[in-house]
Amino acid sequence: MKYHHEKIEAKWQQYWAENQTFAASNNSDKPKYYVLDMFPYPSGAGLHVGHPLGYIASDIVARYKRHQGFNVLHPQGYDSFGLPAEQYAIQTGQHPADTTRMNIEGGVDKSGNTIQGYRNQLDRIGFSFDWSREVRTSNPDYYKHTQWIFIQLFESWYNKTTDKAESICTLIQEFEKNGNTNVNAVCDDNIAPFSAEDWKSFSSEQQQKVLLQYRLTYLAETEVNWCAALGTVLANDEIVNGVSERGGHPVVRKKMTQWSMRISAYAERLLQGLNEIDWSESIKESQRNWIGKSVGAMVSFNVNNHDAKIDVFTTRPDTIFGVTFMTLAPEHELVAQITTPEQKAAVEAYVEATAKRSERERMADVKTISGVFTGAYAEHPFTKEPIPVWIGDYVLAGYGTGAVMAVPCGDERDYAFANFFKGTHGMPEIKNIFNQDISEAAYGEKGGFELVNSDFLNGLDYKLGTKKIIEELEKIGAGNAKVNYRLRDAVFSRQRYWGEPFPVYYVNGLPQMIDKKHLPIVLPEVEKYLPTEDGQPPLGNATVWAWDSENNAVVSNDLIDNTKVFPLELNTMPGWAGSSWYWMRYMDAHNTEEFANEEALKYWENVDLYIGGSEHATGHLLYSRFWNKFLKDRGYAPTEEPFKKLINQGMILGMSAFVYRLKLEFRPNSKTGWSSIVYNCFISNEFRKKIENNYLVLKEINEDLFNEIEMKFNQEFEKDEYSSSSERRVSFDPIHVDLSCINDITNELDIEKFKANSLYSDYKDAVFIKEEDGKYIVGREVEKMSKSKYNVVNPDDICNEYGADTLRLYEMFLGPLEQAKPWNTAGITGVSGFLKKLWRLYFDDNGSVIVNDEPTAEMYKSLHKTIKKVTEDIENFSFNTSVSQFMICVNELQQLKCNHRAILEPLALLVSPYAPHIAEELWFALGHEGSIATVAFPKFEEKYLVESEKEYPVSFNGKMRFTIKLPLDLTKEQIQEIVLADDRTIAQLAGNTPKNIIIVPGKIINLVG
Predict the structure, then answer these.
(1) Contact at 8 Å (CB) between 433 and 453?
(2) 3-state helix/strand/coil string of 405-452
(3) At a CB cut-off of 8 Å and minimum separation 6, what does 858 contact?
(4) Beta bridge partners of 960
(5) Where are the alpha helices (DSSP H) in 786-827?
(6) In whole angstroms, what separates CA 427 from the centre of its chain?
(7) Phi and psi (nearest 5°) for 32?
(8) At residue 583, what are phi and psi to the nearest 5 degrees?
(9) Are 923 and 916 spatial neighbours (Cβ–Cβ below 8 Å)?
(10) Checking phi first, is residue 267 left (phi over 0); if not, alpha (psi -120 to 50) or beta?
(11) Residues near 489 by beta carbon (within 8 Å), at least 6 away in sequence
(12) CB-based contacts of 973: which residues, under 8 Å, 6+ apart?
């Protein structure tokens, strides 16, 4: 009876689906365990073998916990809103809802492309997901609740006294009783004070404007990352090296009126909460750095000849007498106001250039020094000396106040800036306020100095100086102690179509929330997904996108009268909106009235194990914690933190293949750049290595090609700009090769297949220089697995050839879960062979070989070693070593000729979390009904590993002659008696009496003389 993985896997996948084997109950006496994978985005590219890595690990844990008697919630769904789907819709003219559904469910799209479908691919791998709870963020029955959460944020404010979010009604009550003088809130800066009487005298519109300054989600003009090519705002984590991650388009900084969320209100709680959760230290440190807590002082500097002041946050107020200049962010609102006419052109040009650099790029670039003097001067709060005001792109508008009091003697970046512009207009000599030498570098330490040239701070150190200066600043009204955070409020608007519509309409330009009972506000149909001709977001193309406030319905724009019918918000929510609360929806996925029932939330509480990529450290993971804390404040979430334990799986890397196109390079002299001509010729990998170091080697390999290249070079060097000192060389353009064009074992390129591939139509007439054996060998390199690198391995292909259980085991076997590791299909055969060996313990060609005989001690020992190892490994998430132990165990049992039920039943259970299909079939073959999924996991028993016997080597004069198995509890005397009576000993001694007998119980026996 052979092992047919395709039949077995199809059989049990159908069984699980029909019987809803993995459906979790919200009412159970069992302890709960909630294991979750990060929300996948369903792209048309489908899964490659790197994607399932984390899912397999989480599935092993989920299955193991069911065996351990837990009520396990292991759900799955799709983060199905977002920019990629919208861009695909623009390119193909298909509605994003259609392409998204196709990407999930599979089929043939309008362009005739066969789409495998995420759901089909996931099911092929045998995950124990509770599909009855599936969610899709782009479904109206899901995003109605996202819209509701947005409304709750709008209807809340952050009370710093109680340190939590509260209903806006409590703030209104405070305004009605006492005004805003004693309100301790996270809010906009510079809110004008008002009394209770003032509040009551305000018009409704005035009151709404005031409340917008306190709400947790609010409208404000903010600096955003604007991508004109995509027609939308991008988050910082959607930008790479100054261009959009999607498409590589230019991104500039631009001011726009946007919805924002006061995540900054939760900065300290987000920071402190990291101490309560079991996450990797690297992820925690990423969040700590992103939150960026700093303790210092806020200092105000008046601007000469202007009714304005520059507020600066500094962590070193003790250095205030060392301020040599000030630097503003180029986007700072005062720049245009204070710049002198003489400096205006230079400042405007610099501001325009800076707008093309992302904040992340500016933060990372510590080498480039650039800036412009504004011509303006600020006034030192104590000495009254004029301080020149510069702008520089190393200062960010969103961090602190967007202004820096530059103390070059104590800060390396200020020091470099001052020295770079030394001697130019507006840059004074560096002031030294330390009793330390700064001739070569700034003195940035917080100890080991006394302050000098610092008036009343002279002689003080950092600690005493800081305390004293804050006291003096407060006395003159020029500053105060301050805790600052780098974390900024999150921009929540996107100029996209494919996202959650805001439940907002506008009356006289002021936002109004639509009542919960009228949700969802469903995305309208539009003809185009691009922004309108006048620059409005794509929803500006909708003709039915107005709110009838009497009939509570979306109606035609033609009916807008701003009396009863009003315009709706044209922006949509960002991609992270739906993913910031989805784990709670899984707890009660079909509730039409609430995002989740209180009892369900109380039962599941939060996620026990969360597995996903580390790239979400400062995006999704931070926003999720923020929303969870907010919902806890308002009484909707049961816990402060959403994810108890987080594991970041490493990446499975692809083994890319390259062909090498010849490139001729030359330059007139060493001071100029290289010019090049690409030659339509490909050099095999080994020859490429030799030619790269010395291109004259090419003459030995292919003289005709060498002569042709020499002629090309000579033609170039006949040009006027070249002389006898001109240089020439050859190099190579590596070009990714689709893996279908090579032999993955020998790395040989199938040249005809390569030329026939439409991807390489430009090279159909190319020359291929092969190795001496007549083969063209490609180069190989480990890279990120990506469709663009043609190194993707489809898990469906692996499942077809080797089976899903083999795929699952192999991905775990590759190495520790958290580490990156390269995929090598050639290595999978060993795992496939292991499963066949496992099968043969239970079956031969005629069927079952199971016997009910009592196993030997060695069989029990092998089994319980494995029980111990696998249990420890799963608990410690060390899955790769479990697979090794399975292989050892099966080999041992094979050698022991073990077909014993008492061993093979628990072995099937041990294998079940890793290779569930074969485990189910083995369990069924052992005579059991139903699924193996919830059968109790085997328990390790120490007694089977306790050695009762020892196989001693028996030596004569130090040479081992035979072995003897003896009980371990024998005394030396008893061992000696047994050994001397043994026929083999008598034969060795040949009638002689040994002079000495050395016995170490449990170790050695040696007879001497």
Answers:
(1) yes
(2) EECHHHCHHHHHHHHHCCCCCCCCCCCCCECCCCCCCCCCCCCCCCEC
(3) 892, 896
(4) 955
(5) 795-801, 804-813
(6) 43
(7) -90, 150
(8) -60, -25
(9) no
(10) alpha
(11) 222, 260, 261, 262, 263, 264
(12) none
Among 20, 128, 135, 12, residue whose Cα is nearest residue 74 = 128
Whether the CB-CB separation of 67 and 57 falls below 8 Å is answered with: no
User: What amino acid is encoded at 1008 in this protein?
Assistant: V
| Separation of alpha carbons 2 and 437, rounded Å | 82
Pairing of strands 243-244, 239-240: antiparallel
Pairwise CA distance, residues 181 & 165, whole Å: 19
Confidence of residue 151 (pLDDT cuts 50, 70, 90): very high
Res 252: pLDDT? 82
Please report the pLDDT score of residue 727 as a whole number: 79
Q: Are 874 and 61 in contact (CB under 8 A)?
A: yes
Give the CA dihedral 956, 958, 962, 967, nearest 10 degrees.
Answer: 100
Report the Cα 523 to chain-centroid distance in Å: 29
Does residue 324 come out as left (phi exceeding 0), alpha (psi in the -120 to 50 range) or beta? alpha
pLDDT at residue 108 tops 90:
no
E strand or H helix at 205, and its extent?
A: helix 204-212
Are 676 and 663 in contact, with CB atoms under 8 Å apart? yes
Please tell me the distance from the alpha carbon of residue 269 to that of residue 271, in angstroms, as a whole number. 5
333-337, 678-682, 953-957: which has the minimum mean pLDDT? 678-682
Q: What is the pLDDT of residues 781-838, one digit of tens each?
A: 999 998 889 999 999 999 999 999 999 999 999 999 999 999 988 889 999 999 999 9
Q: How far apart are CA 527 and CA 545, in angstroms?
A: 13
Per-residue model confidence (pLDDT) at position 400: 78
pLDDT surpassing 70 at residue 844: yes
Tokens of 178: 């006492």
Q: Which residue has the tokens 């200066």?
A: 469
E strands present in 752-805: 767-769, 779-784
Token pair of 1005 as six digits: 């026996």
H runs (alpha helix) in 634-762: 685-693, 698-701, 703-717, 751-756
Report which of 914, 863, 920, 912 is spatially closest to residue 892, judged by C-alpha positions: 863
How far apart CA 166 and CA 381 sit, in angstroms, is 39
Contacts of 845 (CB under 8 A, 6+ apart): 1, 2
- Residue 27 CB contacts under 8 Å (≥ 6 apart), including other chains: 603
Whose tokens are 């996209």? That residue is: 496
Q: Please tell me the chain's helix, strand, coil percentages from 3-state DSSP, rounded to the nearest 5.
A: 40, 20, 40
Identify which of 96, 80, 191 has the alpha carbon closest to the alpha carbon of residue 139: 80
**pLDDT, mean of residues 344-364:** 86
Phi, psi of 413 (to 5 degrees): -70, -40
Instruction: Tell me which amino acid residue 994 is.
Output: P
Q: How far apart are CA 49 and CA 409, in angstroms?
A: 54
Helix (H) or strand (E) holding 17: helix 5-19
* Mean pLDDT for the stretch of residues 527-541: 85
Residue 724 has pLDDT above 70, yes or no: no
Q: What is the DSSP string of 845-885?
A: TTEE--B-SPPPHHHHHHHHHHHHHHHHHHHTT-HHHHHHH
Residue 776 has pLDDT above 70, yes or no: yes
Q: At residue 723, does pLDDT exceed 70?
A: no
Measured CA to CA, the distance from residue 276 to residue 549 in angstroms comes to: 46
Q: Is 787 assigned a ligand-binding role in the annotation? A: yes
Backbone angles phi, psi at 507, to 5 degrees: -115, 115
Secondary element (H or E) of residue 272: helix 267-273
CB-CB neighbours of 746 under 10 Å:
10
Phi, psi of 683 (to 5 degrees): -105, 130
